[in-house]
Amino acid sequence: MITHTVTSHRSSDEFPKSEHLASKIAAIAVDPVEVPADTEAMIINRIIDNASVSAASVIRRPVTTARTQAVAHPATAAGAGAGVFGVGGTYSPEWAAYANGVAVRELDFHDTFLAAEYSHPGDNIPALVAVGQHVGASGADLIRGLATAYEVQIDLVKGICLHEHKIDHVAHLGPSVAAGLGTMLGLDQETIYQAIGQALHLTTATRQSRKGLISSWKAYAPAWAGKVAVEAVDRAMRGEGSPSPIWEGEDGVIAWLLSGPDARYTVPLPGPGEAKRAILDSYTKEHSAEYQSQAPIDLARRMREKISDFSTIASIVLHTSHHTHVVIGSGSGDPQKFDPDASRETLDHSVPYIFAVALQDGTWDSELSYAPERAHRPDTVELWHKISTVEDPEWTRRYHSNDPAEKAFGARAVITMDDGEVITDELAVADAHPLGARPFSRPQYVEKFTELADGVIESAEQDRFLSFVTDLAAKPARSLGELNIVVPQTYLDKAPAIGKGIF
């Protein structure tokens, strides 16, 4: 890997385009390096993972709304069109990318990478699949594009913190989708450069979507970024330019949205001929909840065996990283994180609520654990309000460690009983993490798919999809439509009624 220093430049500076971060990203997008076998295998795992969580969310209201919007935009004459998860037919690719992105993101249940910034790099998949279907790309083309997209987003997440400036993490997703599409479509470096600049410029927004009372826009934000990136690539292919240098300009992202004109960031990117392996640094979720609560859920399930009566708990303190404390813990200052009437999206970002339910139930369910009646249970509310978080510098250090062997997203739980007894335990990584007790590999991804698809997708359709995706690299051009999954209309009819819009 080559570490690039990225800083702001005045318009009068001598700063050649070849030194722009967008140009360096475009250069790795056009590098014809082969995709390693383990990267290819993990890409297939994550396509299966996305299908799993899409099945689980397909009749939820935000997903139904996005699907209804998308199917109002039929395929254009320029290509074959793209599939929308759950339904037949083909539609305009940017709208298909958007609808499928919402389905993937709605339950907060797919892959993650955490470093200087947060990310869900599986958000790249809907946009690349949709465009691949529309233009007739092959399975190998899609895999090469996704290897680039994962590499770019994860490398940006390693080097540039957005949340400290209250910028939403999808600002790293727009450029990664644009770069991945550039690789998949075989575009030239200049076109990819312009698309990256446009995509970043149009996907910088505040983090209010993940603060206070969290709405369904949390699921829409990455889907919107993917749609915007598809449109940016389309414009760039037609010869349109972008603001540049987008990161480093005098009025660019670093100078005015991040740490200011004097800030210096370091972004690692593969060197020429170096394989793209960043996807292997990411990890998926066993539980439908914010990633930093994955290890606490597993910890709660383990600790509950030591407690005979939850009503005799006096207090629970979770000692954890700064990120966990201020984003999903009591350090956020959000009273909504302790409100039984809070939205599902808010409870998903409340580790006190999550730890309480996991401790009482010994399990976690993507629907039942968030049900209003579950959140209002008096004994749960009582326990929930006894839980707080504090930052522990050691957990913060481990969160930011570059050593995979010690990088951790866990916590130490200190449970004090009414009689003064103190029960303590800790867990550094979730059980499903590559270094966890039950790390995910292909069988676990397939099991997650079949469990979440049960009762949603007919068995023959499940088998057809798994058979196709398992051998994705060998699939010929114009075959990627097989990645779309159709759900019986009788199941889709269970979706809530939605209001009439413009389309």
UniProtKB/TrEMBL annotation:
Which EC number applies? 4.2.1.3, 4.2.1.79
Q: Keywords, A to Z?
A: Lyase, Tricarboxylic acid cycle
State the reactions this protein catalyses.
Answer: citrate = D-threo-isocitrate; (2S,3S)-2-methylcitrate = 2-methyl-cis-aconitate + H2O
Would I find Coiled coil among this entry's keywords? no
Record bears the keyword Lyase: yes
**Domain of life from the UniProt record:** Bacteria
Q: Which InterPro entries match?
A: 2-Methylcitrate_Dehydratase, MmgE/PrpD_sf, MmgE/PrpD_sf_1, MmgE/PrpD_sf_2, MmgE_PrpD, MmgE_PrpD_C, MmgE_PrpD_N
Bilayer-crossing regions: none
Q: One GO BP annotation here? A: propionate metabolic process
Task: Mention one GO molecular function.
Answer: 2-methylcitrate dehydratase activity
Domain MmgE/PrpD N-terminal stretches: 19-265
Residues in MmgE/PrpD C-terminal domain copies: 287-472
The pathway is: Carbohydrate metabolism; tricarboxylic acid cycle; isocitrate from oxaloacetate: step 1/2; Organic acid metabolism; propanoate degradation
Top-level EC class as recorded in UniProt? lyase
UniProt xrefs under NCBIfam families: PrpD_hiGCgrampos
Record's subunit section: Monomer.
Write out the similarity annotation: Belongs to the PrpD family.
Q: What is this protein called?
A: Aconitate hydratase
Tell me which species this is from: Gordonia amarae NBRC 15530
Q: What is the lineage of its organism?
A: Bacteria, Bacillati, Actinomycetota, Actinomycetes, Mycobacteriales
